[in-house]
């Protein structure tokens, strides 16, 4: 049974949603897959995939994570593919922000992927009570360093929950499902350094 809970009931599509949808369609075409074949590989329904490719709705972090896993990309790589070539210096006002309103997750690409570099830097914000689960990493063995700037964050990886307070850092390689949960009374803000294997 295909899951359709990974599309947010979002406001009208943005320009980023349109470019992202077009890129998702390109990636599927590059593989020579039908919507049905991609649905089988991702565990998502054909209608969900079609709506995301046509930018009829804004995809959630969970949907993008599944598709990144199928296409062997990190989420930052996918998002950077719908933008112009990143500059060496990215001013705060120029850093791309993506929001998953359904889950209360805001993602700022502080240092996006760049050709020749394996690392990237992301700022994440989880609203009070936010709870996001990923069924697989976008790239198996992805190295992550997670540093909590404000609040309390519970991260579950390989069946172990790590409770992190302000200033704490978790280092891991991601091979399976993960869960990020705002565990404090207010918003949680953290930095995630990602290094591709």
Protein architecture, described:
The chain has five helices and ten strands, in the order H-H-H-H-H-E-E-E-E-E-E-E-E-E-E. The protein starts with 14 loop residues before the first helix and ends with a strand. The longest helix has 17 residues. It is α+β, with helices and mostly antiparallel strands. A six-stranded antiparallel beta sheet has the order 1-2-3-10-5-8, with no helix packed on it.
The pLDDT mean sits at: 87
- What's the β-strand tally? 10
Q: Main β-sheet: number of strands, strand sense, barrel status?
A: 6 strands, antiparallel
Number of helices: 5
Topology as a string of helices (H) and strands (E): HHHHHEEEEEEEEEE
Give me the secondary-structure topology.
Layout: H1 15-31, H2 35-42, H3 46-53, H4 61-71, H5 75-80, E1 97-100, E2 105-111, E3 119-126, E4 131-134, E5 142-150, E6 153-157, E7 160-164, E8 169-174, E9 178-182, E10 188-195
Antiparallel strand pairs: 1-2, 2-3, 3-10, 4-9, 5-8, 5-10, 6-7, 6-9
Give a quick set of tags describing it.
single chain; 197 residues; alpha+beta; 6-stranded antiparallel beta sheet; 5 helices; disordered N terminus
Quick summary:
This protein is an alpha+beta fold. The chain has five helices and ten strands.
């Amino acid at each position: 049974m295909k899951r359709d809970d990974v599309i947010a009931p979002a406001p009208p599509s943005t320009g980023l949603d349109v470019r992202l949808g077009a890129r998702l369609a390109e990636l599927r075409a590059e593989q020579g897959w039908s919507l049905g074949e991609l649905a089988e590989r991702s565990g998502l329904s054909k209608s969900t995939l079609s709506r995301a490719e046509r930018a009829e709705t804004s995809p959630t972090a969970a949907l993008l994570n599944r598709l990144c896993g199928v296409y062997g990309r990190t989420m930052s790589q996918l998002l950077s593919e719908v933008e112009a070539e990143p500059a060496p210096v990215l001013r705060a006002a120029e850093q791309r922000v993506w929001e998953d309103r359904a889950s209360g997750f805001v993602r700022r690409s502080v240092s996006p992927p760049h050709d020749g570099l394996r690392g990237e830097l992301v700022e994440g914000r989880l609203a009070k009570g936010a709870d996001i689960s990923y069924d697989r990493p976008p790239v198996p063995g992805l190295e992550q360093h997670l540093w909590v700037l404000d609040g309390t964050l519970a991260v579950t990886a390989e069946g172990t929950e790590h409770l992190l307070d302000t200033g704490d850092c978790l280092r891991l390689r991601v091979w399976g499902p993960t869960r990020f949960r705002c565990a404090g009374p207010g918003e949680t803000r953290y930095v995630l350094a990602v290094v591709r294997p």
